[in-house]
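agent> Task received from the user: take the single chain below, predict its 3D structure, and emit structure tokens. No templates, no multimer pairing.
agent> Plan: (1) validate residues, (2) run structure prediction, (3) serialize to tokens, (4) report one or two observations.
agent> Step 1 OK, no nonstandard residues flagged.
tool_call: predict_structure(input=
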Amino acid sequence: MNATGFEPAPDQDPDTASAPGRIVLLTTSHRVAPGLLSWPAWQALHTADRVLCADGAHPQLPYLREAGAAVDETSPTAEELVGACAGGHTVVVVATGEGEPALTDGLARLAGSGRIQMPELELLPASYDLPGARLLDLVQVMDRIRAECPWSSQQTHEGLAKYGIEEAYELVEAIEEGDRDELREELGDVLLQVVFHSRIAEEDPDAPFSVDDVAGGIVAKLIHRHPHVFGDETAGTPEEVKAHWLRTKAIEKQRSSVTEGIPLGQPGLALAAKLASRVRTAGLEVPLPRGEGIGYELLALAARAEAEGVDPETALRAAARAYRDAIREVEAPHPPDNVKE
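)
tool_result: status=success, residues=341
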């Protein structure tokens, strides 16, 4: 055995010694339960002349050995691995979490040198990440941060509430700016709020719940409120979908008024538009209250905008942004030294 702990292949039959053989780099995902490998991966493992793994603590090893695969815990160099394939042998390398960059770089250098006959090289994914798999990483990272970070470990739902509002506004700004990179980042920040609050909720002594409970709840809700997708009902227009959604929601919540469930703490224009939307969707004839002052005028404008399919909050923000740009154009030649509110 050499310094790397790799046992070279025995002397080959002269008739087959020139055959280059085959190297299979077997990759797995730590997000998939160990032992759940693809059929081509199991075939490669069972037909290989040797199976190697540099990490003796690799989570797949107990399952491979239980299935009858003899795995050598060793870390060969590229030259040693190529030599082990001489004579037409197949060697499977179970990649570590890092993907064996030193080994693959060494093989690339050997192949580029033209000095030796290289074996066939194959990258074989043994397990795959499904869409959404990286969410598992986020949950795992949040678990560790909650346990080890002095600031995060002390946070509460109440203390984090302001950050949820802040991140939501930053998300809206990214959407309106049309900045794709910023949009992706802000979506991540909003997602963090969901995972963070869910992690805190696990510690509640009376009514704990986890991020899986949160996800399970919204999945069940979406399926129940989309019978035109998951059931036998039909909906030909967005308005029909919305009407069914509200009817189902009212039954679920046992609400006696279309105004129930509308948060009164939201911005005024959004609140007015939401009320008008509920009234219109429910088919109610409710005249706007009469009164004097800018508040009633804004209420009428918001209701009119909603009836015309315009979000008044978005429209006002767009106008305000245009106003901001105009201000910047005027002050550009002479930027103010100090701005006071």
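agent> Step 4: summary for the user.
The longest strand covers residues 22-27.
agent> Done.
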